[in-house]
Structures are given as structure tokens and as C-alpha cells.
Amino acid sequence: MFQPKTIIEPFRVKVVEPLPLLDRVDRAEALQKADFNLFSVPAEKVTVDLMTDSGTSAMSQEQWAAIMRGDESYAGARSFFRFQKVLQNLTGMTHIIPTHQGRAAERILFHVAGGEGKKVPSNTHFDTTRANVENSGAEALDFVIPEGLDPQSIHPFKGNVDLVRLEQWLEVNHDDVPLFVLTVTNNSGGGQPVSLENMHGLKALLQKWEIPFFLDCARFAENAWFIHLREPGQGSRSPREISQEMFSLCDGAMMSAKKDGFGNIGGFLALKHDKWAMECRNMLILTEGFPTYGGLAGRDLDALAVGLEEVLDERYLAYRIASTEYVWRKLDEIGVPLLGPAGGHAIYLDGRRFLPAVPPGEFPGQSISVALYVEAGVRTCEIGTVMFGKTLPDGSQKPADMDLVRMAIPRRVYTQSHMDYVIEAVAYVWEGRHSMKGMKIRNEPPALRHFTCGFEPVGWNPLA
Ligand code: F0G
Questions:
Q1: Lowest CB count within 10 Å: 13, 60, 239, 346, which one?
Q2: What residue ranges define each of the domains in the chain, with the CATH number in brackets?
């Protein structure tokens, strides 16, 4: 019997979008104009865009058909009931509250559950979650296992919660904890999964103090697939069954449906209990919209209702995780320093080992990101001292825990040959690493500096 080794893309192309192919001179000019900040480079100057997997998915023919079925009624639209049905079935939760994206769900939830003096633990909060917790006056804390903080440690579930450390902390702090947020997969920790065993352990711990368990489920299907692949006893279960078990442990969930919802926009809050649901809906009406559309058009709800089913297709998930792993493996073979093992949605270069002579205060991740763009038109995202560090009063930089460069893979968008091109691009920059140096920040805004600050190379010219 023919047993192919090649895992093919389980789709073919029906509509094409031309890729900008520029020469180096054009890219150097674009980068100069952007003050070496990739967020300021126009998309038409980018050949392969790996800045994020959020909102960048290709929709399927069924999703485009669903767009046409969209019902734009203000109240009680058919689109909402289709969206609600899919999510009630998946999550087992009664209350489904649509929002325009993930952070809107976070803002509403923490407006209701957060506040001065509260403490919100997580494996690792994603930045918008952390910002929304803190904006409510509460404190955001991370309890990922130690392996999750070491780019070189190998563990099948590096997103797991350190239950021993959490239990000790809860003994003292449980009265101040309104809920726990488990991020699956753990984006800020490298797209690493959480095991079902860890979730059951966490549930038992939270139950002891009656603390609600929330899932930040932007990449729930990728997490379920890792469980299917890696967790003993789970190999014969479908990603849907595994996902349903994950949600069954929770009291609520919030999602940026721009990831595993295959949506270009969208999110939701799912809740088991009536009291919070009522308070959240009241906030929703104030800031997002009527409860049967949230911040979305009817057509968006319909496209998401289809996407949230399609994402659980085993052939899709097998291809998705294999394609990320493929890039990771090829780069690892060349010797490029990476955060390992491969994450679900992204490959992370380890900037500190890539450019050991560049101190974190000179942003090694930014130098790599700049070089990948100017040499090959590949756009990536620094996740390190630019994003999480800060300028101290003496002008020096407080370094982040790690200096990573994220290559996030949009869903169903790029083919294997695009990925081969990316691998070549990284290999080229890796070979030329000895002539690379650091960067400095020329001007920065008071908050979220990575989006708008300007840079300048220190002691080298990446554009030459
Ligand atoms: N939670 C997680 C785990 C995320 O990765 C994101 C977004 C959000 C919440 C917020 O959702 O963007 O729809 O408001 N992550 C994007 C990224 C921005 O590039 O990783 P949003």
C-alpha cells in the first residue's frame, strides 16, 4: 500500500494573492523609512509575512459561502444562533458572548472580575491579558513550570503550570484570587502546550478554594493535537473529544478567534454561570454591541462558526503541526539556535545564542529581525527586550527574560516552498552573523514601545 512520507497541504489554491517580490535596494529603503521598526514597514513591501498568525488565516470556500449567509439583523440574527450552537457544543457552556477580538473579551471579563487588590495567576499571561488584568487594578502572576522558561530544555508540555509552586502560593493568597487563566497553547512561552493531566491537577487545586478556572483558548485545537500526539493514552482520541474535555474542566473561556477560529477578526467569552454572564453582557452592550453580535458583523459570526469546526479536522491539524515542526527541524539541523521543541503556531529563534556578542540591551532579536527583512523580505517579530524590557533612568535597558524572534505561521496561507525560502533566508543570515551587531532605540513612546519606536544600528550597517 502506498504510504507517503510527505504530509501534503490538505487544500488546494482557488484564489491567489500576488506576493510582493522586491529587490534588496527597495527593502533597504523601506527599512530606513521605517526607522528599522518592522511594524512601520508597509505590507506591500513584505514577501513572506511571519509577524503574526493572528487574523492572517486563509478562509476556506465554506467560510466564504458562510459570509454570504451572514444575517445582519441587529437583534437575534441567524448568524448568532449558528455561532452560539457551535460554541455551546464545543465548550459545553451556556453563555456565548461575541466580541470583536480577544482583548475585548479580556477587558470585559476583568472589568467584572478584576479590580484593586485582586491577584490573577496563569501559566503565562499573554501581553494583552496581562495589560487588561493590570488595567483593572489587579496583579497578573505567572506559574509556568521552570522548563517553560528555558529555551533549551526539552519537555512535551512546556506550557504546564507548576502546581507545587501554585499550591504554596494559593495557601496564602487564595482569598484575593477571582479566577485562574490557563493560556493554551502558551503563546508567550513559545506556543508550548499544556497536558490534560496538568489541567486535571489544576482543576483539583482550584476546586479546593472554589476558584473559577478560565481558559485563554486562542489556540485550543493546536493544544488538543499536541495532547493527541504526546500524552500517554490520548492517541486514539479525536481533537474534538480532547478539546471538549479541556473545556469541561473550566468555568469560562475567552478566545481570540483570529487564531484557531480561522477568522480575520473575532473573539468571544464563554461562561457557565449566570451571574457573571449578566454582568459581562451589560458591559458588552456598553462597549461592543448588542449581545447577539458583540463587536462583529453577522457575516463574521457565520465565518467563525464554520472555522471553529474546520480547525478540528485531524488532517488539517496533522499538516499544521508537521509544517511548523518541518521548519524547526531544518533550522535545528543547520545549527540555528532555537527555542525547543517546535511550538504550534511559531518557530522562535534564540537571539542570545544567535548573537552572543550582542548584549540584551542592544536588542539582538531586533538585529536578527532587521537582517531577515533586508536580506529576504521575511518579516518576523522581536519578542524580547524591545517588547518586554524598558529604558531605566540612567539610559540603560532592563533586559527581558529571553530575547526571541518569533516566526509565526499564518494558517493555510503559505506552502512548503515558501517555508523552504524562509529556511534559506534564516540560514543565510545565520552564516553572516559574525558581521552583525546591535541596535539602539532612538525615540520611544511611554508604553508599548515596540509598535512605534525608532531604531538605529550600532557599529554596523545592515543596509549596506
Ligand atoms: N490571548 C492570546 C494567547 C493571544 O495570543 C492573543 C493575541 C490574545 C489573547 C489577544 O487577542 O489580538 O484578538 O485581541 N495574540 C496575537 C499574536 C496578537 O500575535 O500573538 P486579540
A1: 13
A2: 24-53+313-458 (3.90.1150.10), 61-310 (3.40.640.10)
